Amino acid sequence: MRKLITGAVASSAVLSLILIATNGCGVSKMNKTEELKPVEIRQYEGTKLSSVDDFRENSIRGPQQVDIETYRLRISGLVKTPKNYTYDEVINNRQHYKKTVTLDCVEGWSVTILWEGLLVRDLIAESSPLTNARVVIFHAYDGYTTSLPIDYIMNNDIIMAYKMNEITLPAERGFPFQLVAESKWGYKWIRWITEIELSDDVNYRGYWESRGYSNDADLDKSFFEQ
Amino acid sequence: MKNITKQDLSKRITHLLLIVVTVLLLITGFGITEFRIVEPLTFGLLTKSLAFKIHNNLWIPFTVLLGLHIFLSLFKTRR
């Protein structure tokens, strides 16, 4: 019995030594700071939030990988001073806003997300829009386009989001920027925004709009042209 | 062929139409959610918007045919 106990203690000691040796005594690892995957929040001010994984992938060319080093956001068209911002220039030194908004897709699913970003009207105002500008056309990295009346952008708090549920937009969700076109059908919520163009062409139709979807895209109406 | 009664014929037509409508519902459903695959497969014929229009308008014929299919199946054919 005594031999058995001694043997067990000895084997435990040897095993412990091996484990410590293979882990490098845990000293070098403790000094390193490893970045863990960011964790999204799922509740905000009493509102239950959907997950960033609850979206269905329905973009026209699949998720886009935007290189942030070369990325530029252009403000162009009917403006006095066209702009060309880097990602940091867009994000930094601006008032940021948070808002819980539900995206309703024409496919029948919806997600409620806490969006964080900046107001599109603030960005446009910096370029001094001309008085004849009527429509704001958004262009995306994958060639997708959509448009909204300038009055809708200026008279509502329309956010261009860079965060959702407190984490930076993942590539498949539209990194670097997604439009939060509240009270509009999902096809107006353009992802991977690269250009905001002001135009006087009230008949302009974006990707899905030119394929039969309503240009107004109001949630309380059908998304098909009547 | 001459042994087929009117009841038989209506059953067959209903069942056949139900199959056609069900297949159409499935294809147009895929045309909505998997449009990046279905559109090139159909040589651009079944676009997402067309798939939506067909899919949304098929629920009435589908319900009617399903009802008929169940109703007609309750009666045994006389031989």
Secondary-structure blueprint of this entry?
The complex is a heterodimer of chains A (226) and B (79).
Chain A (H helix, E strand, L loop, with lengths): L1 H21 L4 H5 L11 E2 L2 E2 L24 E5 L5 E3 L1 H5 L5 E8 L5 E10 H7 L8 E6 L4 E5 H6 L3 E6 L2 E2 L9 E3 L12 E7 L27
Parallel strand pairs in A: 3-12
Antiparallel strand pairs in A: 1-2, 3-4, 5-6, 6-9, 7-8, 7-12, 9-10, 9-11
Chain B lengths: L5 H28 L1 H7 L6 H10 L1 H15 L6
Protein chain pair with the most extensive contact, residues per chain:
A-B, 12 and 9 residues
Strand content bin of chain B = under 5%
The helical percent of chain A reads 10-25%
Report the CATH architecture of the largest domain in chain A: Alpha-Beta Complex
- The third-level CATH topology of the largest domain in chain A is Sulfite Oxidase, Chain A, domain 2
Q: On the 0-100 scale, what is the average pLDDT of chain B?
A: 90
Structural class, from helix and strand content of chain B? Answer: mainly alpha
State the order of secondary-structure elements of chain B, H for helix, E for strand.
Answer: HHHH
CATH class term of the largest domain in chain A: Alpha Beta
Domains of chain A, number: 2
Q: State the low-pLDDT regions of chain A, or none.
A: none
Q: CATH homologous superfamily of the largest domain in chain A?
A: Oxidoreductase, molybdopterin-binding domain
Low-confidence stretches of chain B: none
Instruction: Give the helices and strands of chain A as they follow along the chain.
Output: HHEEEEHEEHEEHEEEE
Please outline the major beta sheet of chain A. 5 strands, mixed
- Count of folded domains of chain B: 1
